[in-house]
Amino acid sequence: MKRSLEIELISAEGLKVDRKPVKKKTFCVVRIDQNSEVTKIDTFGGSHPIWKDKIVMEMPMDGSVRFIIVEVKYRTKGGAEKSVGVAKIPVTDFVGGFAPQGHLNFLSYRLRDQCGDKSGIVNVSIMVKPDGSYKSPSPTVAQKDYAACSSQAAAAANGQMWRPRTSSSMATTVGYGGRVVTGVPVWCANNNNKSSIGYRNSTKW
Amino acid sequence: MGNCLTGDVAGGKQAIGGVQQRPTSTSNNNAALNDAVDFFFRSRGQYPLFSQIELSLSASNLIDRDITSKSDPMAVMYLRKKDGKLEEIGRTEVILNSLDPNWIEKITVSFQFEAVQTLVFHVYDVDSQYHNVPVKTLKLKDQDYLGEATCVLSEIMTKPNRSLTLNLNGNFGAGVSRRLGTLSVQAEETTASKTVVEMNLRCINLDNKDLFSKSDPFLRISRIVENSVAVPICRTEVVDNNLNPMWRPVCLTTQQYGSRDNPLIIECLDFNTNGTHDLIGRTQKSVAELERHCLQKESVNFVYTSTSHGRNKVLKGQLIVDRFVEKVQYSFLDYISSGFELNFMVAVDFTASNGDPRNPGSLHYNDPSGKPNSYQQAIMEVGEVIQFYGSDRRFPAWGFGGRTSDNTVSHAFNLNGAPHGDEVVGVEGIMSAYASALHNVALAGPTLFSHVVDKAANIASQSLSQNIPKYFVLLIITDGVLTDMAGTLDALVRASDLPLSVLIVGVGNADFSQMEILDADNGRRLESSTGRVATRDTVQFVPMTAVHSGQVSVVQALLEELPGQFLSYVRSRNINPVGAPAI
């Protein structure tokens, strides 16, 4: 059985070749089994490139593939492609273990060059695309009506939660009187009762 | 301060203030860091008498310590504590080849009205070999010292324009007194506004300032503050050799740009390694105007003010706003009060390194008079905080490194002694479970954190698969002597992508250097033996000695990093407060 992986090559940090920071255009090659995919080239970042490039690849789930290989490469002025370093991502880091199905895994790995020296860190995110029967567990739950709660809570919480502005010369530096009102939620004394949670001044919501 | 220093190739070419690097790093809006602490105090009727102040630093006429070029200054701010020791508060970025630097990176400090807060500023010349290193990791003793200045924070705050200029002085031996220049400090109150503006900026038809190649442009955005001084707030990265550059998205917080109608000065400069960046052109626009230009797809012409004539010349070069998005960045409290639950777990160290419970010197001393031992004290003090933020007052409680009743050493046994069900209720529950465990469990070893970390990670991952908005905090109370550093690192790195933070509370006076390594506050990321690197910082170490000596309160110590760690998790996944509209 095969599953498709959504792999985002996000960025890399501190890329080095021969202990010197990489200045050139960098890109990534991802290899699963015999297949490989290439990301777009970053021209801004030098040794701290940001790709934010998503690729989708198939991976057999029968245990025959144990690692995904990510290689960071750079392109020289002459157009040649050279390697910065390689990271081997164990499949167990995003399948099974602590990662529930459909979980978006943010993973970072140390890159090493051919000599085994550290040559930077690569940041990726990997999601095993759920098959049709599975619902994604992104925690955006419980539809609650914000407007409804806010009217309840405002009365109960007023005066208890923050200090009213003083009229002294300190008033300009106090900060709290002014800080809290700008859409910061108000939590009532009874913090187990969720219906008493509300937002004041909810213009931003 | 933000993780936004990238440390670029050519040193000093990086973007500062408003560019996010890692997906899991929190941006430089750290006002949220403290609202968790304030909230705790306010809920019990104590109003902390402090407000957050942001300091912008600039200097002029610094001395020159480099031979072939000018100094590359960086400022470090300390708070002088009661015992005279200096506590580092923050650092600015390094500015290349300048004796009159105007630092962009701000330093945040809490202004306590009732206390005398003595600030000490040290200015260093950072050698070029360190220019690619994050400033947080720089060793200051390797840098050339350019002088220091001292003032009291309230001195700045009571000035009408909130700024103060100090003379730098320093000891260069032989009693030589030299003019070392001045340091100016500008203070501003932080705002808790959650609005963030993200823009994609590019320029076209810029003038060429370089002789043999094209210009290397970057943008510097400054805000005009009350007394018409321009404070730089953000700088883009340098695009080499390009007259039609496009920069990475710039992200400005309300703290940075003030209000929508506050004029901002946008300057386009040509980067020169010798520090004298040539002005290509400048324009003055507010955020509201930039938004309008974006909507109407208008471009803004740069203006060049010639120094000799004082006349403004409208240039061919234009600034284009390709994208303008206003976003809301929710704070820690937004999530918590919307029903995002914090769940605490407690693990207590039962290893022999704590000393025999019958011995009064032991941290686990079982005092017949009932006086609480070090662990009990720690549990009580910490418990107050976690009981407040914990949503259901039920805590899974474990012990580790003890020999349980079946005569085997367990590295994660239930503290209450029950074979199934590790949960206890409230601080009293932890206390009584601890007391019973002290009777039933013999102290043993070795000290392994990995079992309890794995156990906590399992709970966190189960809640993930059940689709519940929860964040977990594992509290490890320990004397700090760790047997298996590599195993602990592996477990922490494995768990770093889960909604889990680990708070290590150190009791006693042992050597906590291992805990400091786990905390990784120096900007280095934890790395496992397999080469995986921690996705984000999830560990914080709190020594109880610091709490007891009165340097920080327990609440402050415990909640120092937790809101940031929490936000790094939810923001990287675009998780919104429960019921809030999507950003």
From TrEMBL, chain A:
<protein>
    <recommendedName>
        <fullName>C2 domain-containing protein</fullName>
    </recommendedName>
</protein>
<dbReference type="InterPro" id="IPR035892">
    <property type="entry name" value="C2_domain_sf"/>
</dbReference>
<feature type="domain" description="C2">
    <location>
        <begin position="1"/>
        <end position="106"/>
    </location>
</feature>
<dbReference type="InterPro" id="IPR044750">
    <property type="entry name" value="C2_SRC2/BAP"/>
</dbReference>
<dbReference type="Pfam" id="PF00168">
    <property type="entry name" value="C2"/>
</dbReference>
<dbReference type="GO" id="GO:0006952">
    <property type="term" value="P:defense response"/>
</dbReference>
<dbReference type="InterPro" id="IPR000008">
    <property type="entry name" value="C2_dom"/>
</dbReference>
Automatic annotation (TrEMBL), chain B:
<dbReference type="GO" id="GO:0071277">
    <property type="term" value="P:cellular response to calcium ion"/>
</dbReference>
<feature type="domain" description="C2">
    <location>
        <begin position="33"/>
        <end position="166"/>
    </location>
</feature>
<dbReference type="InterPro" id="IPR045052">
    <property type="entry name" value="Copine"/>
</dbReference>
<dbReference type="GO" id="GO:0005886">
    <property type="term" value="C:plasma membrane"/>
</dbReference>
<dbReference type="InterPro" id="IPR000008">
    <property type="entry name" value="C2_dom"/>
</dbReference>
<keyword id="KW-0479">Metal-binding</keyword>
<keyword id="KW-0519">Myristate</keyword>
<keyword id="KW-0449">Lipoprotein</keyword>
<keyword id="KW-0106">Calcium</keyword>
<dbReference type="Pfam" id="PF00168">
    <property type="entry name" value="C2"/>
</dbReference>
<keyword id="KW-0472">Membrane</keyword>
<dbReference type="InterPro" id="IPR002035">
    <property type="entry name" value="VWF_A"/>
</dbReference>
<dbReference type="GO" id="GO:0046872">
    <property type="term" value="F:metal ion binding"/>
</dbReference>
<dbReference type="Pfam" id="PF07002">
    <property type="entry name" value="Copine"/>
</dbReference>
<dbReference type="GO" id="GO:0005544">
    <property type="term" value="F:calcium-dependent phospholipid binding"/>
</dbReference>
<dbReference type="InterPro" id="IPR037768">
    <property type="entry name" value="C2B_Copine"/>
</dbReference>
<dbReference type="InterPro" id="IPR036465">
    <property type="entry name" value="vWFA_dom_sf"/>
</dbReference>
<protein>
    <recommendedName>
        <fullName>C2 domain-containing protein</fullName>
    </recommendedName>
</protein>
<keyword id="KW-0677">Repeat</keyword>
<feature type="domain" description="C2">
    <location>
        <begin position="179"/>
        <end position="302"/>
    </location>
</feature>
<keyword id="KW-0611">Plant defense</keyword>
<dbReference type="InterPro" id="IPR035892">
    <property type="entry name" value="C2_domain_sf"/>
</dbReference>
